[in-house]
Specification:
heterotrimer, A alpha/beta (about 325), B alpha/beta (about 325), C mainly alpha (about 325), A: about 325 residues, alpha/beta, Rossmann fold, 2 domains, eight-stranded mixed sheet, four-stranded antiparallel sheet, about 25% strand, C: about 325 residues, mainly alpha, MetI-like fold, 14 helices, about 70% helix
């Protein structure tokens, strides 16, 4: 189980580091093996930061990230290398993920050098071929080529194959299909679904709600670094309770229904008269719902569906 | 206004030869129409949009004509085209919001632009203020630098600037791609509003995102590998797509409500052909599930029903 | 990712399609080497422009000629170039190709031996500066944080040191100075700008996704720098070295010219120093100072032209298509 427990990340910026920028604040959720969790948010929501923290590319300022009950902050050297055996990532731009000076084999051979030094040539070729076939690529199609000779979809699948060479249990997929064409997106997405069925736990980071809805079992909606709603995907999408979630869903262009006539305003929709589900359950909440008064950050509205205060980081005068 | 494009061919010069990015495209845009131009990367839609405004050094106009309001556009002659740009035909280029000069205040930039078009700034100042209010930008935005604005704000600013002189035809190239979903909706609806209020007569909206086009475009044109595949009214296209590519494309788009466990969507296997030496005949036949012998002969783009044209032997 | 020009690399691959059918796996154990007809778009492009570059051509010719002369010349005129072998102060003729100095030394012998020495100073001094600059630049750019701050401080201090004053002090203590010392001194004082430049490039490359990917593959910092970052800067590093090389020659010649050069042997700069010291200009012995001056100018000039030419080849934005 990959667990995030009240994870926070802040940066000091400005002259002499006087201002604090909170990229992520008190985010908690977990990913079980064989489950796809979507992390949905717009730009600046902190979703990429969370992905990078899980991959140990950034340090965690507050809270903890644990994989199988081991806090990853303490890992280094051999322990860290071992961690990467179990947790891997794939990023947004397939061509930026490849070193343009090397052929794409370099991605796979790096794994070999670090983790499979003892393996003989024949055994390695077999392992490589098996991983490639698991993502519907033929070794002859993609090996010994430079990145620019392959398509974006092929490179992304190659990057997933790279993760499969190891004993990956959890995969962080950060906007992996947003730079692909529509006709190849669905192939990569279906691939993730197949991997999920085989026991991989996937964190699917995206800004596109339709994709999240298609592939994920559970959804976490992020806004300005905080979780505003989370739960089982059909529940969150079928019965959105937070005004921000509702606004997002209304703005998604659908293929068989037109947008409503009224244009959404700049704010997260809804004025003071809008019903705040969180406060119906916790009427005493004051300020940014949760910290004051020892109340939970999210209120469980139904099984596997929780929502936060409707005006999370604004002055809530309830 | 009306736009008539006949058999337009624009190639790119490269070291390896000519890339036939746009290879014989014919269509019309009527007065007041918002036409969506969709397709995947490399299909030629951006080339089409850009060649109507400016054929730059890398591009080569090989054939065809463009006629706007009965006047033939001299697209190869950049100096001559200058008379048409911004006044009759305007573009919101891709990455426009990143192309705002970061060292200039926005107001200064608008003034310089307008003056260079031969219009004194004071004549448009009031109209500019009205339009800024319409798109939801405060008038003081003219005093700010681009870096102070968010992505959605910059995009709306660019839209106002490009349409300030009321062009007949506006080309919008991937204007929603880099935006968050809430800004996308605002920007797309602003586009429609510009047309409704008469700031522009007609539009060509170029994007890979078919669902946005469903929301705002009256007609939809799908391109593949430098050629037109299908053109129809948007609702008709969604209900009864005739070209196999269009059908496969639409069915590969996930919608809210469609889930992997219940409905497994499929993509289109393979990749588009290289445009350096495109194959003879229909360019989609390598990936087409309906391909048969006749497909080695290129199908013409013909009207099979009123307002619905397809380039496929199996259609109609 | 819409519109735009498809890469020519893919097209070339289609023309020279390998006989591997998609779907037919390679036999296990059979390593398919790079297919001969397969073209690497980037390399082809670079060679294409390299062949057409006049600057590259002219610079290479000049440098190769100089190197050839530095190798062959001492074979034609073996022995000590500073020996007094000829008539005093004669202009160039069939026996003394570059004439003789006021003391009867063979100017041609001095010239060809001096060329070699000048190259040596450039190579050693420039090489040392490049090494230090690379180490400091890579580490500072990759690590960031306090390591970066510390290295920046050191870089700035070395930048600001008045090298001339330092050298005069050193000279006062060391009566006998060799070429090696001069090269070492140049190497230790001329690296800061290279370190700065490499640091900046490393900073920008470090945020690329392939570096992240290497990190999550358990690759150590040193390997990331050498295997992922440095190759991407290959042309940049090479050009930096060329500039340091040229700079070292120039600095060396200048130091020689003002009398702070080596106390034994001969370099082109020393020739000019001696020429001026012994009033060659007033005596009209142009053959004594023009060859070394022209030599230094030609070599350093050729190196700088080489640099500009390479930059044009490698950087697509500078090309005139």
């Amino acid at each position: 189980m990959l667990t995030l427990d009240r994870v926070s990340k802040s940066y000091r910026i400005g002259l002499l580091g006087g201002t604090e920028l909170r990229a992520v604040q008190d985010v908690s959720f977990d990913i079980a093996p064989g489950e796809v969790v979507s992390l949905i948010g717009e730009s600046g929501s902190g979703k990429t930061t969370i992905g990078r923290m899980i991959l140990r590319l950034l340090t965690v300022n507050g809270g903890s990230i644990k994989v199988d009950d081991v806090d990853i902050a303490g890992l280094s050297g051999a322990g860290l290398r071992d961690y990467y055996r179990r947790v891997q990532g794939v990023f947004q731009d397939p061509f930026s993920s490849c070193n343009p000076m090397h052929k794409v084999d370099h991605l796979l051979s790096t794994i070999r050098t670090v983790y499979f030094g003892q393996l003989g040539e024949a055994a390695w070729r077999e392992k490589e071929a098996a991983s490639l076939r698991a993502v519907n690529l033929e070794p002859g199609q993609v090996l010994h080529k430079y990145p620019h000779q392959l398509s974006g979809g092929q490179v992304q699948r190659l990057l997933i194959a790279r993760a499969l060479l190891l004993d990956t249990r959890y995969l962080v997929a950060d906007e992996i299909i947003s730079m692909l064409d529509a006709s190849t997106r669905i192939d990569v997405l279906n691939l993730l679904g197949d991997l999920k069925d085989r026991g991989l736990g996937i964190l699917f980071i995206t800004h596109d709600l339709s994709l999240g809805n298609y592939i994920s079992d559970r959804t976490v909606i992020l806004r300005r670094g905080r979780v505003v709603e989370m739960g089982a995907t059909p529940r969150v999408f079928g019965n959105p309770l937070h005004p921000y979630t509702r606004m997002l869903l209304e703005s998604v262009p659908q293929l068989h229904a037109k947008w409503g006539v009224a244009r959404p305003g700049g704010a997260a929709g809804g004025g003071a008269a809008e019903r705040c589900v969180y406060h119906e359950l916790h009427p005493r909440a004051a300020g940014a719902g949760g910290d004051g008064g020892g109340l939970p950050l999210l209120a469980a509205v139904e099984p596997d569906h929780a929502v936060a205060c409707a005006r999370l980081d604004e002055e809530c005068g309830c | 206004m009306s736009l008539l494009v006949s058999d337009l061919r624009v190639y790119y010069r490269t070291l390896a030869g000519d890339v036939k990015a746009l290879d014989g495209v014919t269509f019309e845009v009527a007065d007041g129409e918002i036409m969506g131009l969709a397709g995947e990367s490399g299909c030629g839609k951006s080339t089409l949009g850009n060649s109507l405004i400016r054929v730059d050094g890398r591009m080569k106009h090989v054939g065809g004509r463009v006629v706007l309001d009965g006047v033939e556009l001299p697209i190869t002659d950049s100096a001559e085209m200058d008379h048409f740009r911004y006044h009759q035909i305007s573009i919101i280029p891709q990455y426009a919001m990143s192309a705002l000069n970061p060292t200039r205040r926005i107001g200064t930039m608008v003034a310089e632009l307008v003056e260079s078009r031969g219009t004194p700034f004071r004549e448009v100042r009031d109209e500019l203020a009205r339009r800024l209010e319409l798109v939801g930008l405060a008038p003081d935005v003219l005093e700010r630098y681009p870096i102070e604005l968010s992505g959605g704000m910059k995009q709306r600013m660019v839209m106002v600037i490009s349409t300030l002189l009321n062009p007949s035809l506006l080309i919008a190239d991937e204007i929603t791609s880099a935006l968050d979903v809430s800004s996308q909706r605002a920007v797309a609806q602003t586009l429609v509003e510009f047309r409704d209020r008469g700031f522009v007569s007609s539009m060509i909206v170029v994007t890979h995102d078919v669902s946005i086009l469903y929301q705002i475009a009256e007609t939809l044109t799908v391109m593949y590998a430098g050629k037109l595949a299908e053109k129809a009214r948007t609702e008709v296209m969604m209900d009864r797509p005739l070209h196999p590519y269009t059908r496969l494309l639409i069915s590969s788009l996930p919608e809210i409500g469609v889930r992997f466990e219940n409905t497994r969507l499929t993509g289109i296997p393979g990749t588009p052909p290289s445009l350096l030496n495109p194959p003879a005949g229909c360019r989609f036949r390598d990936r087409c599930p309906l391909a048969f012998d006749r497909c080695v002969e290129e199908p013409a783009f013909v009207e099979v029903e009123p307002g619905h044209s397809v380039a496929c032997w199996k259609a109609g | 990712m819409s519109g735009g020009v498809p890469s020519s690399g893919r097209a070339a691959e289609e023309r020279s399609r390998a006989p591997v059918v998609a779907g037919a796996p390679l036999a296990a154990g059979l390593v398919a080497g790079p297919l001969p007809a397969e073209s690497v778009g980037l390399r082809r492009e670079i060679l294409h422009f390299a062949r057409r570059s006049k600057k590259l051509l002219i610079a290479s010719v000049v440098l190769l000629a100089a190197v050839a002369l530095a190798i062959v010349g001492p074979l034609l005129r073996p022995g000590d170039p500073n020996a007094f072998v000829g008539p005093l102060g004669v202009p160039p003729d069939s026996e003394w190709w570059f004439g003789t100095t006021t003391f009867g030394q063979d100017v041609f012998a001095q010239f060809v031996h001096g060329l070699g020495a000048t190259f040596a100073v450039g190579l050693l001094g420039g090489g040392l500066a490049a090494l230090i600059g690379m180490v400091v630049g890579f580490v500072a750019g990759y690590r960031g944080g306090w390591v970066d701050e510390l290295l920046n401080m050191i870089t700035n201090v070395v930048f600001v040191i008045p090298t001339l004053a330092l050298l005069i002090v050193i000279t006062a203590y060391l009566q006998a100075r060799g070429l090696l010392l001069e090269a070492a001194f140049i190497g230790l004082t001329s690296w800061p700008w290279a370190a700065r430049a490499i640091r900046a490039q490393t900073f920008s490359l470090r945020t690329r996704e392939f570096v992240d990917l290497a990190r999550i593959s358990g690759v150590s910092t040193t390997r990331v720098i050498f295997l992922e970052i440095a190759p991407n800067m290959g042309s940049y590093l090479f050009m930096t070295f060329i500039l340091l090389f040229g700079g070292a020659i120039l600095i060396g010649a200048s130091l020689d010219f003002i009398g702070l050069g080596p106390t034994e042997g001969i370099t082109l700069g020393l020739m000019m120093y001696q020429a001026v010291a012994w009033s060659a200009m007033q005596l009209g012995s142009w053959w004594w100072f023009i060859p070394p001056g022209a030599g230094i100018t030609a070599i350093v000039g050729a190196l700088y032209v080489l640099n500009v030419g390479l930059d044009e080849i490698v950087n697509p934005r500078l090309r005139e298509t």
